[in-house]
Structure formats: structure tokens, C-alpha cells
Amino acid sequence: MKLTLDPGAAALLDTLHAAGYAAYAVGGCVRDSLLGRTAHDWDLCTSALPQQVMELFGAEQCIPTGLQHGTVTIKYGGQLYETTTFRTEGSYTDGRHPDEVQFVPDVREDLARRDFTINAIAYNEAEGLVDPFGGQKDLQNGLLRAVGEPQQRFTEDALRILRLYRFAARFGFALDAATARAARQLAPHLDCISAERIQEELAKLLTAPQPGAYLEPAVLAVVLPELTPAALDAAKPVVDACPAGEKNLPVRWAALLRSLGESATRRVLKRLRCSNVCIEETAVLVRETAGEGVCRSFSEDRPLGWDPAAVGSRAGDGMARLVSEEKASAHPGDIHLRQILGRYGLCTVERLCALCAALHPQNAPDCALAAQRARQLEADGVCCRVSQLAVNGRDLMAAGIPAGPALRRVLEALLDGVIHAEYPNEKPALLAAAQKIIAS
Question: Which residue range or ranges hold the tRNA nucleotidyltransferase/poly(A) polymerase RNA and SrmB- binding domain (predicted)?
Fold first, then answer.
């Protein structure tokens, strides 16, 4: 079988071969190429020792990223290529990193140390695939299987347990029975893995297309002990119903942890060293969907003038048309939508709609309409925030309203009045309303 190599990887392999060294593309880039996917990171392995690699390509082109483990990163064509000497590994005292490595001349010995058969395939144009453990067949069969003895692979590095479920979820693969059994049995060893690495693997797992089936209870009991088995079972179909992808990670986190409530969700994500942005967004989603929450307003309160039959009728953007903006703005559903749009922004509103649709599939069409409505409100510049009012603090002070907390309260009251269609978002009307608010 012939694979199309990345041009930079091909050039580096040619240079290594011309110097008399064995060299291959290896691991994920080969796996993804065999699956017909675009490979982004091209890793190389070679019989050349790290010092020989650096001598061959020069100090300016090489970054000595891990010489003790045989790794040199080569800069070529604006890209980085991690290049590692064939090696075997000694014992893993810490359950995560090898105590020592030994450089070897044969790529097959190097492949034998890797985690899963689908990642233990090497390739160059002269020899084709080097696949001593049947990785290509496992790819064809949609099977994830450990290289060699699963117990040994997971005992060496417990992080491989999480990688097992992450890769399986990413590709929708079945788990080899012996590999899955060993992962469940050795899941307690995950307590030696840093919170950052656990979070990284869980995030990749949660952004997969359908991760529910790969949220293994034995594993989650160790890395997310706050989540009860019953809560996990209930969360799985909701997680799967949420949109996939990195952008929607907070939605998936909220779907998984929602039973814990806002405070406990914050504590869990903080313990896992999630970013502050992710923690805050997930907490908002959990808070706003608690109980009836915002989901009810999406599913029961459609604004007047919002015509579901017209969805897609507007050329270009596929939005439903607005029959009467002024009347619509006074409707309870539209009021709430504008309030949360002003409070959180469009991205959060779209995520709330997605989570509500996952929680209440029967109301998914209404949630989709709410998201479309929010996008249209944003595109039309409909007033949802104090900053969109036709007056600002300077205008109010010029009209005699003193600076201070009262000024902010007046602005917020004006916004509330505009959203409730008590008066138009026009400067004369707002200034008159402000005087009435101060006088009351």
C-alpha cells in the first residue's frame, strides 16, 4: 500500500535514508492516513541516534526536545517534525514514564513498546507498511487493541487507559475484550496521573461524536468520583445528544456534570485544572438549566411574529422572518431571550439552546427556533444590553441625573423598559422615562 506523505516528512525521510539510516513515518499520521483522514502531526522514527540527527540537519534546524529519550524536533518548511530514535523502554516506576530507554536498530522493537496496534504502524515509500501487530486489520475491523499484553501496557502507563476510550470514541471503534477488561481492572491506577492530563484526555473524549458508550463507569469512578453511577447513566444520552466538537465542550461538560449543581460543577472542573473560561461557561449552563430553568422559556414561549413555517425563507441566512419586531419584543419568551442574550452573549445562548434540546428532545425544534431568533436579534442589533441603549451615562448626567450607583440603576431600568416595549429605544423617550424613574 502506498500512502501520500507530507512533503516535509518525505524530504526528511529521504535525507535520513541518503545518510544510511533507517527511517519511517510512524504512529498517528500513518493511522490517520490509512483511515483516509488528514494527518496533522507527522512523527518520524529512525535508527539514527539523536546526536547523529542533529549533526545531519544542523543545530539551527534542530530542537533537542528530549535527547535522553531519543527525541529531536526538526524544523523544516515552517513545520515541526518530532523525530525519535528506535528504542525500547525499561520499567515504569511511577506508572507514567519509563525509568530508562535503550536505543535499538530495529523499528519492530520500537513498535512493540507502543500502546495500541493502530498506533504501532510505520511507513516509508521503499518498504511500505511495517505492521507487525496487525494494526491495519484492526483499523479495517474498527477494533482498538493493545499491543502485546494489555495488563503490561496499562501498568506501564495508566494514562493509556484514558487514551483507550478517547481513541475508541474518536473513531467509533469497538474495544478488544481483553484490552477493555484490563482497562477496567487497572482503572484505580489512574490516581497517579496528574489532573491536567486527565482533563486533557476527558476533554478529547467528550468532544468526540458519540462519547456516551465510552464513558466507562470503572474509569469515571476514579477520575470523576463525584458523579454517581446513576447520574452517569442518566447523563450519557444527554451528552450524546449535544453537538460535538471543541467549541461545544462546555455543553458536554454541563450535560455530564449537571446533576451535581453549579457549585460542585465548579469544584470538579477546578480540580481538573480546566480553564477559567470553560469553568465559568459550564457553570452558567448548569445554573440556567437547573429545574425548569431557561429550557421552559425556549420550548413554551414563542415570540409573537416568529413564524416557524418561514424558517429558511429568508435568502442567505436561513432565518425565520420577523412579522412585527415591536410586538414580538413584549412577548414573555422574547423578553427572556433578549435578557439572557444581553447577559451572556450569543455563543452562550446557542449553547443553552443546544443543551436544552439535548435535555428535552421533544422540544428540540423550539430550541432550534430560539437559537435562530437569538442570531437574528444579534444580527439586527435589537437592544439587549445597556450599551445598545440610545442614551448613555453622559446623556443622563447632562439631563441632571447625578453620577453614582443611581445612574447605573436608571440605565438598567431603561433597558428593562425597552425590552418590555414600555417605550422605544429613542433618545427623547428614554430621557423622559429616566426623569420619571428618578422621580418615582
Answer: 172-217
